[in-house]
Amino acid sequence: MYKAMAACKICEQELAVYNHGGVYCRNCQNRVSVGDGQGGIQEPGNTSYGRRKFGNILMKKSSGGLKSLSSLSIMPSLSSISSREELPSGKRALLCGVTYQKEKFKLRGTLQDVKNMRDLLVEHFSFQPASILILAEEEPYRAPTRKNILEGFKWLMKNLRPGDSLVFYFSGHGLRQPEFDGDEIDGFDETICPLDFKSEGMILDNAINDIIVRPLRQGIKLHAIVDACHSGTILDLPRVYNRKEKRWANNEPPSRTYKGTLGGKAICFGACEDHQMAADTSAFSSGKEMNGAMTYTFIRAIKENPNITYGGLLNYMHQSIVAANRGRCLPSLNLFNRKLEQDTVLSSSQDFDINQKLNL
């Protein structure tokens, strides 16, 4: 038996591999082997599902739903990652909406979520359409597969300059699974589920942190908005804001593994706490249109108050969920009397004043 060092092709983590066997990268679950260099991706284990929790809520098809996003803008190509194509500077966004159309746990609101988030970025935050990469099943050659999402991360992070502002948005299912390396206070890794996660694997919070958080240099900021179950600390950021106590709390891993940046700033809005589920619902729609509860309230808060602060946004989303549960929202709440049990989580690579204006 001999040992060789090999680098993961996805996240470039160096690993020790014995003989001609293989190991799974602890960061992104890619299989790394010596010899033929090939291998599949580890299939996710038997864990509890959620968004949005699979089969939790009655999903109704929206009337006059968006057929395609192609007509909305001239979107960048994934091929620009490996080509010399000039990438947009200043502001850049990766938006992922996973519907899981062929699965029994399919979602109804994710495509609308992506369209609404795209419109918000263009109309309220001056993003150029050509600087927004959308991955959705309805987009030819841009399905939100594991490979394409990881390639999208590379596109988002390529050729960054001080002053750049990045956005990563994900609407889909999220899972959690036990971890044994002391990287999580609660003992669980959080994940997002690509379209093909059952065969190709999930994307762990460790990998997301390594790829889009750690490389952020001074003068570069990232905002992540993740509408999925168990998404509170999906970026593994070291600081989490306690809304009730109005203070920042420590979220550093017991292992003391560094989860910060190279001087840049990363901020994440997760749809719910790590142990909670996030809802796909028509509770906030005047018709039968489905939306992610977090995405809808996030966008509505900004549209109603363009100068809203981070703290004001947190409070608005919290109060919207409370009002829906009290029946003060709209009578279309179709949850079989189930409550929306989720509370948005704000996390960051560093403490900051949440009374400052939100600026993506």
Question: What's the layout of helices and strands?
Answer:
Elements: E1 3-7, E2 14-18, E3 22-24, E4 31-33, E5 91-97, H1 110-125, E6 132-136, H2 146-157, E7 165-171, E8 174-178, E9 188-192, H3 197-200, E10 203-204, H4 205-213, E11 221-227, E12 239-242, E13 247-250, E14 265-270, E15 280-281, E16 291-292, H5 293-304, H6 310-325, E17 345-348
Parallel strand pairs: 5-6, 5-7, 7-11, 11-14
Antiparallel strand pairs: 1-2, 3-4, 8-9, 9-10, 12-13, 12-17, 14-17, 15-16
Q: What are the secondary-structure elements, in order, as H or E? A: EEEEEHEHEEEHEHEEEEEEHHE
The whole-number mean of residue pLDDT values reads 78
- What is the number of independent domains? 2
- What fold name stands as the CATH topology of the largest domain? Rossmann fold
Computed Rg: 20 Å
Structural class: alpha/beta
Distance between the termini: 52 Å
List low-pLDDT spans: 34-50, 52-68, 328-337
Number of helices: 6
What coarse outline follows from CA principal-axis ratios?
A: globular
Sheet of most strands = 8 strands, mixed
Question: How are strands sequenced across the largest beta sheet?
Answer: 6-5-7-11-14-17-12-13
Structure overview:
There is one protein chain. This protein has 360 residues and is α/β, with parallel strands linked by helices. The protein has two domains: 3-33; 70-348, 3-Layer(aba) Sandwich (Rossmann fold). 19% of the residues lie in helices and 21% in strands. The chain is built from six helices and 17 strands. Strands 6-5-7-11-14-17-12-13 form an eight-stranded mixed β-sheet, sandwiched between helices. It has a three-stranded antiparallel β-sheet with strand order 8-9-10. Strand 12 (239-242) and strand 13 (247-250) form a beta hairpin. It is globular, with a radius of gyration of 20 Å. The N and C termini lie far apart (52 Å).
